[in-house]
Specification:
Distance between the termini: 50 Å
CATH architecture: Orthogonal Bundle
Strand content: under 5%
Structural class: mainly alpha
Shape: globular
Oligomer: single chain
């Protein structure tokens, strides 16, 4: 039976990665709510922009990794639409530009709340989404993918979401952004951990390729530890026990650390990849609930 086109395109959006776009908007909006500055219109636009940038980046990754040879017959991860011959390279490239164009237009509407300075943030986010695997010096191919994810899906996304509603970026907003960025980067760690061998063959010098799987396990565990610790600091700052809600996930984080360490097959890592995205989503929900309590 021929697979439906909509299902192919849905898979190309990589739904498991989308919590990385939703989580920072949720937390930034929760902070705005706590400070009495929540704006549903601005928050909705931030969410739409973040999702479109994430999807556009995924489309770019699908296209450029195929062109550069990182996605080939030896790859063991989830199916990539272009490499699998399901979507023509030119079609994927056009879809990438289309999604980024819609994101740009949507981002322009946020100037009403945050001023023209947001144009720089929006354009930079889109350019880096393309430069993640495309352009003359792709970030992911030089070990900077983790930094990109932490900065743009953590500090920038949470900070900008809070800024367009509250009119400023506070220390508290940046603090709350840290665990979101680290947990989003952990999705990339698991993905690159699985693909280390084929990435090395394609000269895709991710941090896992550069430093080895042992260093990746340390990075993964350290990010989980910081994510578990930040709510303690936030709870002390706000004098609110509710802000400790994400700490309920500590046992899950511990199991994730052990699962990465003990993984033996690509299938185990694919499952952990999905669960890492779920962890980010649940963490963001609990963190946001604690902030608005």
């Amino acid at each position: 039976m021929t697979e439906a086109r909509w299902h192919i395109w849905l898979g190309a959006t990589r739904p498991r990665t989308l919590p990385a776009a939703v989580a920072p908007v949720l937390v930034g909006s929760a902070l705005a709510w706590r400070d009495g500055r929540f704006d549903v219109g601005a928050a909705s636009l931030c969410l739409g922009f973040a999702l479109l940038v994430q999807i556009g980046t995924n489309f770019a990754n699908d296209y450029y990794d195929f062109v550069r040879g990182a996605d080939n017959a030896t790859r063991v991860g989830p199916r990539r639409a272009v490499a699998a011959g399901l979507i023509a390279p030119g079609t994927m490239r056009a879809a990438m530009w289309g999604v980024f164009a819609v994101a740009f237009v949507l981002g322009l509407s946020l100037i009403r709340w945050g001023g023209p300075g947001l144009l720089i943030v929006g354009v930079t986010s889109i350019v880096c989404g393309i430069a993640y695997t495309g352009g003359p010096w792709p970030l992911a191919y030089h070990g900077l993918g983790d930094v990109f994810v932490f900065v743009f899906f953590g500090l920038v996304a949470v900070g900008a979401t809070y800024f367009v509603q509250a009119g400023q970026v506070t220390t508290g907003a940046l603090l709350a952004a840290v665990p979101i960025g680290l947990l989003a980067a952990n999705i990339l760690v698991v993905n690159n951990y699985r693909d280390a061998d084929t990435d090395a063959a394609a000269n895709k010098r991710t941090l896992v390729v550069r430093l080895g799987r042992g260093a990746a396990r340390v990075q993964f565990a350290a990010s989980l530890a910081v994510a578990a610790a930040v709510p303690l600091v936030v709870a002390a700052r706000h004098r609110s026990v509710a802000c400790l809600l994400p700490c309920l996930l500590a046992p899950v984080m511990w199991r994730h650390r052990r699962r990465l360490r003990d993984s033996k097959t690509p299938g185990e890592l694919i499952e952990l990849l999905g669960d890492t995205g779920k962890l980010l989503a649940i963490y963001a929900v609990l963190f946001s609930a604690g902030l608005v309590w």
